[in-house]
């Protein structure tokens, strides 16, 4: 919250051949007691910006502590799970796209997901980008959270609280001068939580005129909502 002190600690947990896993731990510090409380933990995958056509091969990290060894071992498992997720979802998408193969859900008194659809357009300006001219990933995530929060609020009629971001992946870059179009919609509700899917498309001036977007990012954001007493609100069922 405003006025609190946030500490962010990062380190490379493991270097694979051409990619690396960076662990990120965010804590909040109590000003009076100096006690720390964990706010968030995340793992980001990076590749080095190539010089020419070839990928940059990375050297192994030097492990100095027992914690380093543990995170080094867990990193390969997280990578395996992450790649497994991608294969499962690709298979599901292929099956759902088969002609005549579709799923219908009839929820009595369900709220139409069309009511939760939100679209926003942002222009990438120099403060939104790094020294290479690429849009900051965190800036894209912030814009995604905004449209997803509006989408979720149309069900709970309250201020949704972001709990997690799943399968956040960059499919391609965007640059200063690009128009980014964010499309959000509620996918499903689970009693006290809701999943909002967000898709991001980028256009340069020529692509904007021709209506030819580049799909650069997708993610699934999970929200809860609470009442004035801090109790979790129940989300209504939805009608896809």
UniProtKB/TrEMBL annotation:
Residues 1-52, 114-229 form the HotDog ACOT-type domain. Pfam families: 4HBT. GO terms for cellular component: cytosol. One of its GO terms (biological process) is acetyl-CoA metabolic process. It catalyses: butanoyl-CoA + H2O = butanoate + CoA + H(+). It is found in: Cytoplasm. GO terms for molecular function: acetyl-CoA hydrolase activity; carboxylic ester hydrolase activity. InterPro entries: Cytosol_ACT, HOTDOG_ACOT, HotDog_dom_sf, Thioestr_dom. Pathway: Lipid metabolism; fatty acid metabolism. It comes from the Eukaryota. Keywords: Cytoplasm, Fatty acid metabolism, Hydrolase, Lipid metabolism, Repeat, Serine esterase. This is ACO12 thioesterase. The gene is Acot12_0.
